[in-house]
Give the backbone structure.
Amino acid sequence: MIKRILTILMVCMLAAIAPACGVAQGTGEESREPLTAEVIAAAFDGDVKLKDENTVVVLEDCTFNGAYVNEGSFVIDLNGCSVKFETGGGSDDRGWERCITVCGSGDLRLTDSVGSGIFKGVCSNQAVFAAAEPGGTLVLDSVAVELFSENAQTGARGHCFGSWGGTVTVSGGVYDGDVVAIACGTEQPASLLIENGLFGSKKAKTALYMTGKVNVNVKDGEFSYPTFGVRAAQDADLSGFLIEGGSFRDAALDESGRSLTAFISEESQNRTRKDGILTVAK
């Protein structure tokens, strides 16, 4: 009992100083003290533990208030828990809110050692669960994420994850939202490596959207459930887009009629079409 009281007091103290230490409460522009795993832990309103100096393990269903990771290397383990998230990880110049932003020398891996947990949220405007900006590295390692907008009829969108010039690697998992993944090249190409995973349900509009210059490599994954599958802006530079495997909506990428088949690896010769679904494998 005494140990739990001390833990609660410590988390409360850390939460009080969080705006100065890396848990963002706005645009992510404020000066901050070095980010630590303790500060990330304080952004959860339930029981968590520090497995080591870099790893936060969630111990119960709770809410996560967001993090702005601009330095250090950290791991968040869902540990089979259900975590509701708030968009407290900053916003960009368009007003898109985020739960997690990884940039600079920041490196973050989200995982679930048990396999039954989920990050889940509802947004009222354009929002992204986790985004990598120039220099940032984000790894989604077999987690489940869901983010839909409550105002989808007004054009608002919820995005599970995206790259805005940073590096994102997806190693399996289940992701669902209005637009599941976005690769948005800015001054730096948006880098996205998808090794496997399920991207969107029938409720989703788009599994993957690309704009600007992108380096997107799809090795495998299920992209065929959302209404529009994989889409791209007409002026998107897709010279770095490569498909090695996966299942997709057999539809044009954009209004100009660019086809997915133009971006399939030469080694991936096993291609089948059935009921509007294109399946690619080596």
Notes: The first strand starts at residue 48 and ends at 52.
